[in-house]
Amino acid sequence: MTDFRRVGILTSGGDAPGMNACVRAVTRTLIADEIDVVGIRRGYAGLIDGDFVEMDGQSVSNIVQKGGTILKCARSARFRTPEGRSQAAARLADAEIDALITIGGDGTLAGANLLADEHGVDVVGCPATIDNDLFGTDETIGYDTALNTAIENIDRIRDTADAHDRVFLVEVMGADAGFIALNSAIGGGAELVLLPEFNTDIEHIKQRIHSLMAAQARSSIVVVAEGEEMGGAPAIAEALKSDSAFDHIDLRVCILGHTQRGGAPSARDRVLASRLGTGAVKALLDGITGVMVGVVCNEIRYTPLSGITGSQKTINYDLLKLAQMLS
Ligand code: F6P
């Protein structure tokens, strides 16, 4: 068992529902092992600035159910420079923090890997992003909640779309990955889904919408991933509207945007975040550092940080066929 006396914890990048549950799990597991916990506010930006707060069991009371992050998040340009990372490492040394647990997405984990590589910092990462685009874990913290939010909103859009016989292009988040789009399309019963992983065939979209209208569909929902190659729902809508065959089709765009990032975490995200937070502390205590903790096939797994950033998690093609077959 490795002897750590003070461990820092930060949340970084875009926030994700369940980050608080993870902060709570890390804090309480460390305290149970009589290790001091230092909260680092505003991610790597706060690390460079020394924006630290001592944490105790009470600091994380009543947060398991809350979206956002009590430690706040930031995307730090300074940390992307070698000088910024040197300042960050120096801050850790000054505050006698001997290990770091970082909670965030690909940028956060890439940063953690650099801190470990360049400055020998003992670091363990927890995957948290609504995009679910991280290798080494079946799901990331926040993804399930965001997916449920997307589906709930698609259901609402369906009501109004049906009432007016409209076609809606609903844009969902996910950066360059189509996990939210594909699964919300299945769960929301969308007629079509456009993913970043594939080329967009505008002629196919036109034909599909026309054949749905010809079949007297009351409404049609096209789920568009924000990373779709033409530029998302507004660009697709423009391309469709420029075709006179669409003059008589009542088309609307709805961008779900940051609504998908907020809200109370789902039960699944709370449990995942709690498992990953405690798993990260256990990794540290067992001397396993420079890794991301994930859950694969319902078991805790550690994957080297260097293997996370270079690897891509692929979407499930069977799910894509399912979406097409059921639409
Ligand atoms: O990575 C999470 C995410 O919400 C992406 O889905 C989205 O592209 C991006 O962050 C938005 O970032 P910001 O909140 O900085 O606009």
Can you describe what's shown?
The chain has 327 residues and is an alpha/beta fold. It folds into two domains: 180 residues, Rossmann fold, CATH 3.40.50.450; 120 residues, Phosphofructokinase domain (Rossmann fold). The chain contains eleven helices and eleven strands. The chain has a seven-stranded mixed sheet, with helices on both faces. The N and C termini lie far apart (54 Å). The site of 6-O-phosphono-beta-D-fructofuranose has 10 residues, from loops. 6-O-phosphono-beta-D-fructofuranose binds next to loops.
Structure summary:
41% of the residues lie in helices and 18% in strands.
SSE pattern, N- to C-terminal: EHEHEHEHEHEHEHEHEHEEHH
Question: Total number of β-strand segments?
Answer: 11
Q: Into which percentage range does the β-strand content fall?
A: 15-25%
Bound molecules: 6-O-phosphono-beta-D-fructofuranose
**Any idea of the CATH class of the largest domain?**
Alpha Beta
Radius of gyration: 22 Å
The CATH topology of the largest domain turns out to be Rossmann fold
Could you say how many structural domains there are in total? 2
How does the overall form come out from the CA principal axes? elongated
Helix content: 40-55%
